[in-house]
Amino acid sequence: MSGTVGAGGPEPTSAASGEPGRASRHREDSAPGARDPKRTARGRKRTAQGSEPTPPGFQPTPPGPGSTPPGSESTDQDSKTMAQGSESTARASEPAGEDGVSAAERELFGGRLRWDDAFVEHEGSVARLRFGQMAAALPRMMGVVLRAGWETDPRALAGVVVAQAGQGLTTAFGLVAINGVLGSLFANGPTDDKLRESVPALVLLALVSVGMAVLAAWSTAMSGRLEPQVERAVSLRYYRAVTRVEVAATEKPEIQRHLEAGKFGTESARRMLSLSVGASNVVIGMVAAAVVLASLHWALLPMLLAIALPKAWGAVRSARREYTSRRHWVDHRRAVATLLQYLTMPHAAGEIRAHAAGSLLLRGYEEMSGLMETEQRRLARAQARTDLVAAAFSGLASLGCYGVLWWLLTSGGLPIAVGGTAVVAIRTSTARLTSLVQQVNRMYEEMLRLGDTEEAVRLAAGHAIPATGRPLPSPVREIQVRDVSFTYPGATVPALHRVDVSVRRGAVTALVGANGSGKSTLAKILGGLLLPDSGDVWWVGPEGERVEVREAARADVFRSVGMLTQDFPNWQMTAAANVAVGAGDRPRDMARVREAARAADVAELIEGLPHGWDSIVFKGYERGVQLSGGQWQKLGTARSLYRGAPFLLVDEPTSALDPHAEIEAFDRLRTLADSGVAVVLVTHRLAATASADHIYVLDRGHIAEHGTHEGLMGRDGGLYRGMFDAQAAQYGLTSFPVGAVPAPRSGMAVPPQQGTGAAD
């Protein structure tokens, strides 16, 4: 068994799958180190599989014929690179510091590059596992898999169990058949007679071989049928739970970390099933061999144990040493992966060449690679010593056992046929011990991650949005926020304090204020995403009937609201899907998709793409295109309009638009309000608030003042007027004229309002 910690080298082969590092690949090299930093900064996390590769747009491209590596554009640069390379080669031979951190890591990362992610939660757990703990954990791990399999496909699970039990029986029958063949061959009498007498046992042995092959194939078919079902069931259970968690709960770091950790266990259920099948096959085979040996002669069972135990000890020790080394140096490997990915990223190409950044990265790569090669040599030497010790003890045990076997044979206490059967059983049983230890190691780690998933589901259920509640009035005409306060988890200062706001349909309500004043938080309160710590949020009907948001059916609340958040997601899907996701609870209506796109002034752009609405709006895929920030903002606006909700909350909807497009966007919002939609506008562009029906000015979580644009501008020393005049001064104006945003125009495209039940 050999582990590899070299830079970019393959990981240990998974015993269950035969694929390099399949059981842990997503937690190491292809973990965050392989992500594009721009996407990481935007908060795009790994997928449900727990293993997000580098996006297609940033995958390294092999250099073409005749291409030159970075940093070799000139003779001067060549000489510098060679000199620096010689220096780094010398440094690579130097040992790392006492903490195992190389000089390159300190220079580039300030120390060890360890990801603050939930996927590293259990690193090192297997290294602390003792042999007795491993043996005791095996039945519990198999029980977890059996329960998951029984819940998804009992028939397939029964097929796997029957096949495994059958293979154990065929192993036993095979040893009995071997004993019969040997007994016939070693009996007294003519050779022809002995051969004829051995025919029944040979036929039985052939049937046993066929039966084992059939049962192995049946087990493969049933486990192959069961594995994806188990993964799907666990994944759906997890993701359905986490998508129902209250938004405020996800703001708590301890809860978010638990929920994030659960993501990596969804695939563990599948791997545990595969590993369990392999481990149970080995265990059942060994038990069957032990039972047969004990039935032939009581002394044969201790012989089997005496030979097997040293091999098991060696396998466990080697596995733990390799695992410990791999986990210790995985941080170096992540650092290496981070360095290498920059060398081929298009957005870094300029600095790689112009600033000679490639030379710095290559020096770091060379130094860290040298250290990891040194560690690989150390690990190989230590593993060789362990193998020698284990082989020596096992050899001594074998010598003693075969000596006892010889004594039994020569003294007449054991027939020769039984002795031959014992040798076959001992050799076949001990040969698979290393595989068993590797599988149990993997199973234990996967069990911890599957436990994280179960804990995440339990935690999510305790913080879930209620599935029931009172229906909203039909239709809702106004949202009233009364004396509302809200503090984010872990914060000492309230984001909102005793806030009163009214939002009515057919009007534009603007929320303005400095950064951190509470505007976006108030918008989330209005949309039902956050519940206030104190105070009330009333959804009011035409006759004054009202329902408080805590008592309301939240599904009705969400159906009544369309949102365009400041950091809305850019889905890596088609343009049509990016709009239709605004109403993901309804079948896609392409006519309404196009109508919403026209209202957001993005239809012409999308329809002009080579693949139109089927274009994937992310460069790097087939049919992929790259949209600008302003184009994305228009597409996000179309998404919020497609929902057709009577209340529309837009947070900085024009931050990426050019001046003309910005004026048109605010114009469209005004027209929407005139059609009966309640528009809540969160913005820093105070010129746009001139046409708002009511303006609320927030200051450090309080409503500092509110009123119309004209009324607020008439207050000397008022906060709104001060901000407005400050923006006007940037353009050399004393003040923007009232009505800087054009009045509503006739004939504007307004998407039809989709029926939303109680809110209409």
UniProtKB/TrEMBL annotation:
Family matches, as SUPFAM superfamilies: ABC transporter transmembrane region, P-loop containing nucleoside triphosphate hydrolases
ABC transmembrane type-1 domain span: 158-445
Keywords: ATP-binding, Membrane, Nucleotide-binding, Transmembrane, Transmembrane helix
Topological category with respect to the lipid bilayer: Multi-pass membrane protein
Domain ABC transporter: 479-725
UniProt biased composition (Basic and acidic residues): 26-39
Full protein name: ATP-binding cassette, subfamily B
Source species of the chain: Streptomyces qinglanensis
